[in-house]
Amino acid sequence: MTTTNLSGLVAATYTPLNDEGDLNLRAIPSMVDHLLAQGIEGLYVCGSTGEGMSLTSDERRAVAEAYVQATAKRIPVIVQVGHNSVREASQLAKHAQAIGADVISATCPSYFKVSDVATLVQTMGEVASGAPELPFYYYHIPSLTGSAIDMGEFLLQAGDRIPNLVGLKYTDTKLFDFQHCLELQDGRFDVVWGCDEMLLGALATGARAGIGSTYNIAAPLYRRIIDAFATSNVEEARRWQSKSIELIRTIGKFPFHPAMKAILEMRGLKVGGCRLPQGRLSKADAASLRNELEVIGFDVEQAGGLAPAE
Question: pLDDT tens digits for 56-106?
């Protein structure tokens, strides 16, 4: 297994659907080109943003394969394989390895909650064993899985028991915990930040990469945060982070992922709506969303543009 730590902006990709709610795989090459043009440095497929848990396993395989083929090794493709059936998750991991994905990741089962470190290590070990040649990142998202296990303890135990464990996708807001995980065993683990509106805080604690939903529509904004921080212009970085917060608060007035897909549709990308229970924005809500975005200076027609922060 060869590993290279993730870096920069990794887009949590959306799964394109047609008007009937079926997969629209033909839209994926355009999605990939759009993201590459914005400076995205990796793709995270079939995660929360990509509605992995709302798709059948066969659909997840089809989506993963389409993204891998469209990306053609230009940037890493991470396939999220978590499932309430641990055996099914392991089979999805096996498929990801077979189609040439670069990395696998997985949430833990969420119907029957994982409540202790030993069980999480055993569970993730079985999932990761399906793709022993690929780096594995555990996807920590307690707000959706209901599993709030200490990630430092998980890494310490799992690091010796899961041979291909590389790190975490850390989607929580505890920067102190995130920093602790980053610094464990002299920085052994690659811990990737997953909360877009707190990217600057994560950079300050040592983050080298972020995985996020709004990178699909505003990657240049986040690039400005990263670049300003890298040149020690913290005030400038803070102003751009403020713009990110304003953008996310505006989108959050609507059902979030249907609203994000509506913005991509405004960009000419045929991604459709979301599977139930999320659904699709009405035409009236989409028009209202567009107006709200224009009020804050977000250009829905152009990839990633917000007016300069004042």
Answer: 999 999 999 999 999 999 999 999 999 999 999 999 999 999 999 999 999
Distance between CA atoms of residues 295 and 307, nearest Å? 11
Cα separation, 25 vs 16, in Å, equals: 7
CB neighbour list of residue 253: distance below 8 Å, 6 or more residues apart: 289, 292
Cis previous bond, 277, omega within 30: yes
Catalytic choice (67, 139, 215, 222): 139
Residue 176's contacts (CB-CB under 8 Å, 6 or more residues apart) are none
Catalytic one of 169, 170, 215, 222: 169
Read off the pLDDT of residues 226-238 as tens digits, 9 standing for 90 and up.
999 999 999 999 9
Res 308: pLDDT: 41
The domain segmentation of the chain, as residue ranges, is 8-234
Q: Report whether 103 contacts 84 (CB < 8 A).
A: no
Cβ partners under 8 Å of residue 256, min gap 6: 213
Asked if 16 and 23 count as a contact pair (C-beta separation under 8 A), the reply is: yes
* Number of residues that this document lists for the chain: 310
User: In the annotation, is 73 catalytic?
Assistant: no
Distance CA 275, CA 289 (A): 20
Burial of residue 37, with CB atoms counted within 10 A of its CB: 0-12 exposed, 13-18 middle, 19 or more buried: exposed
**pTM for the whole structure:** 0.96
Q: Whole-angstrom Cα distance, residue 93 to residue 98?
A: 9
**211 assigned ligand-binding residue:** yes
Beta strands in the chain (DSSP E): 8-12, 42-45, 77-80, 103-106, 136-140, 165-170, 190-193, 209-212, 298-299, 305-306
Active site residue 139: yes
Domain 8-234 adopts which CATH fold? TIM Barrel (3.20.20)
Confidence grade of residue 162 (pLDDT, cut at 50, 70, 90):
very high
Q: What is the Cα 223 distance to its own chain's centre?
A: 16
Nearest residue to 14 via CA among 305, 263, 276: 263
